């Protein structure tokens, strides 16, 4: 078996090792029908980086070794960092707490204003002092603690603690914000609020940190959770690719930087073809999904390379097929769809040009959550499994399900009953990702192919076809909308019609009309029009019928 790992996967695996699993992998929590208690702030989310996918933050916020850092010399009154996870009121689903958690705060210099631990923010980019917040402030040379409402019916101070704390002390803050507007709060074990605040705080919204003046603050050991329920507006649809596809529901990119040609993701003959795709080749939903079932057919897989008479590879065997779940953008690249999303892929294992095995892997932020090996009849990459008894290529039916945090992937062959679906993979993620769903192909780029050829090694591209793509929203309270058809095809241009009128004397296409009588107010019009006509007709010599260049 080849020891070589394919280009894209080697990059992923190498990066995962370098980052030690990288950030943002969420532990298992209970989820139900798009509902989950998500970790919106954890130490792992800022140990290695501050991801724009998880935070809205100003550039002057820094991080190091699992700490979010506000520096008095570098920040201002508008400096802040806010999580992009929205906390919801889920009392009708049996969840009373809207947002809760624990964190450690250390303030190393006297506060000139207030430092906010904010919640109930209406937007991820809202100022921290526009909703409710636990406020830290200077109280006679020590740190005071209070809860403040900056908006809503109960604007003003909700609670002020009589206890003060020394600067440089680690303050462990525990809090629970309940959807009814009450709150529990303790600092270093000192109970302050216990569900008995007279004024109600704001609950639904986003969570973050900010300040009213430059501060010297470190935040670490943070574990903040929010009750969330995603019911995105989207559509159930089936796309047969018979005449392009509905570009109001789907978007595709065709790849770049490849060695083999043609390189494209294109509709041809009623299927969507991944031809020699390398770095960027995918089709994406234009609407976000949480719980869903996606099925599609794979009528063709390039299971062996096509060679010319001299033994040179013309079309390489296919590389892996992937599905990105919870992707943050429709127009994207592999560093987002693969590295910053939940990403499932199926990869053939080749030996002497034949797929002798198949592996399935699930990645989250480069960290490998699970890998399984598939063999026998389920290994649909294998040449022997690719044809039926009559020698015709078998169509593979694939099904991908995300339900209440559980991802399952099944396959069967065309013509087999539904109960013949065989499970290729499952993993209980514990939360329900929200985002765009994409089908990816990936392969070796130009330089990688050349390097392999120089070493006598094989290279691979994504070479397969898709058909009958179906998306079904399986949220309990599905929010479905109707979407009109917008063709993905370029509009067809009318054929250019022209008539040859040769003037044998001048050997030109244009035979001048007799001089027109001069009219006031139109001086020069005839000559200008004639010049433009000459340009147009002359240009016609460079055109075939249909407007294409000769």
Your description of this structure?
The protein is mostly beta strands. 8% of the residues lie in helices and 39% in strands. It has 4 helices and 35 strands. The chain has helices spanning 7-19, 334-337, 446-454, 525-540, and strands spanning 31-32, 35-42, 55-57, 62-64, 67-70, 80-83, 97-107, 115-121, 132-138, 143-149, 156-160, 170-178, 183-187, 190-194, 206-211, 217-229, 233-234, 237-239, 250-253, 264-268, 271-277, 281-285, 292-298, 306-307, 313-315, 321-327, 342-351, 354-364, 367-374, 396-403, 406-413, 422-428, 436-441, 462-473, 479-480. The strands form 6 sheets. Strands 1, 2, 4, 5, 7, 12, 13, 14 and 16 form a 9-stranded antiparallel sheet that branches. Mean pLDDT is 80; it is low at 1-33 and 518-550.
Structural class call reads mainly beta
Inertia-based shape? elongated
Biggest sheet architecture? 9 strands, antiparallel
Write down how many β-strands occur, each being a DSSP E stretch of 2 or more residues: 35
Distance between the termini: 50 Å
Number of discrete helical segments: 4
Helicity, in percent? Answer: under 10%
Mean pLDDT: 80
Give start-end ranges of low-pLDDT stretches. Answer: 1-33, 518-550
Our estimate of the beta-strand percent is: 35-45%
- Report Rg: 31 Å
